[in-house]
């Protein structure tokens, strides 16, 4: 069963996620972390940075990347990863990948990214956000639950959500490369974060709704270790939230 942590502050979510990351990374000498961009994971990176850990051996694989932005564009996910994650955490830039960054043909970029993840021994822990449409990565509604890294078209809703990072919506790319849902499910641990009332319907559908490609995030129900960390507003439509609070508070007993 998916574990649910309902927190008061985003900083609390960051600390919980940081604890999970440290535990996951301690299991290997050359651990691999799945990186998510955007505003939602920022408390996680801040909590990790506060610990002053040596993360120089950590390999990173980003969830997704826009297609069509010029090299060095500040809103490319390569730039965002470098700015928000690599620099603050002291990661080795040469060990951090985003889809399509190897310069090869776009048509085979997904297969090459999958091969790189496999060569690294898989992803130990994957950080995730969730879109209002229920997407994880850029796996929009209708995505196969067995999908692998591939080229995808973005929905108008996702482009509208991301337009705040650009001068206008016409500048938002129409396509991306994204890890597939099957790729995401291969990670050892999944940590999904969501904040705010706008995410409440998607969170409820992902955690308590049916397993369906109409809500790609519902695939986390299949995972052996998925942790969902949400604030009160994002948890507002969860029917069993009182039980989730009890189960989270007593998780040490359950694991003893």
Automatic annotation (TrEMBL):
Gene3D superfamilies referenced in this protein's UniProt entry, alphabetically: 3.40.50.1360
Domain of life, per lineage: Bacteria
Name any one GO molecular function.
identical protein binding
**Which Gene Ontology cellular component terms are annotated?**
cytoplasm
Can you give the residue ranges of the Glucosamine/galactosamine-6-phosphate isomerase domain? 15-225
Instruction: Keywords in alphabetical order, please.
Output: Carbohydrate metabolism, Hydrolase
Matches recorded under Pfam families: Glucosamine_iso
Instruction: Cite a single GO BP annotation.
Output: N-acetylglucosamine catabolic process
InterPro entries xrefs: Glc/Gal-6P_isomerase, Glucosamine6P_isomerase, NagB/RpiA_transferase-like
Is Hydrolase among this UniProt entry's keywords?
A: yes
Family matches, as SUPFAM superfamilies = NagB/RpiA/CoA transferase-like
Name of the protein in question: Glucosamine-6-phosphate deaminase
Q: Which gene encodes it?
A: nagB_2
